[in-house]
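dumping these here so i dont lose them again. two proteins, back to back, each one seq then structure tokens. dont judge the mess
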Amino acid sequence: MPRNGSGVYSLPGGSTITNGDTSDASDLNTPLADLVSDANAARPIVAGGTGAVSASAALVNLGLTATAAEINLLDGATLDVSAVTATATELNALDGITATVTELNYTDGVTSNIQTQLNAKAPTASPTFTGVPAAPTAATGTDTTQVATTAYVVDEIPNQLNATGTAPIFACRAWGLVDASSGTPVVSGSGNVASITDLGVGTFQVNFTTAMTSANYAVIGSAKGVDDINTTPSNRTILLPYSLSTTSFRFVITEASSNAPTDAAVITFAVFG
């Protein structure tokens, strides 16, 4: 009787010897044979065994559903398993796993929840960065969907304007092309010009769409009486700006020969400042 139903081993009856007993070979052979039988049988879990004679049966007896092949994925893993306290339920997490040893080793050195760490990263779609994010600076003239750094923008603006040197570049804040030959100003093209008011012969007011930050700006303009190549004195005109404010400015056009106001056919102006 190697073991009872609970897996506890007991010597066969009559195997106990007391002082003064007379023993023969059977007294020794019977318990020895019993021990041999027990040693060759599956050792129960209560005695430190698995109660099985095969690996698959041992897994079942230990309460595992993961197969030997799945658990063998840990073979060669570099994780520190010297103090494993995993329960059968926790080991059963390997049930159905398809990761390789190499893939399992990717977790080596992880010190906190991986998903939490991933959630802290910016997504690839429409990311929002904090701090001072940096990126490679594209070569001047690059025309792609590559990210433009501030350094690229600073270099590219002069390149687009065909400007060389280190002198600062100032942008035009308003411009216009006007034909007043009919006596009423007609705007042919403009930028930041809401309207042009006719103040009388040769006199006009330009009203800005967006106001200037101050009245300290420059107006550059020209005018020609007739839209042709004629350069006779009567066809030469002068544009003189005045009454500059943040919302508008005025100008008068006079004939160069007589200094009389005139409604010119080609009036151009640009504002800088």
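---- next one ----
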Amino acid sequence: MNILPLTSDARVGVLLLAAIPGTPISLQFTRLAKTRLAFGAVMTFILSVLVLELMPRIVQRSEDEFTLLRAKLARCRLRTL
């Protein structure tokens, strides 16, 4: 499925933006929920550390998915020719 016509580099960039943890806005949510600032700071720290572990896995999995999708599309194009 191709919603936006993007180059493969742009797709990877969008993927990375989607995988960024919510640390920039976690303190805003803490303020809006009127909870303790320390809780928000700890959550920001945990998300920042967690992303170091998860980012390579997310990128690798999405790269595998893009590769499989390209292979399927190539096979479909060959069948229609």
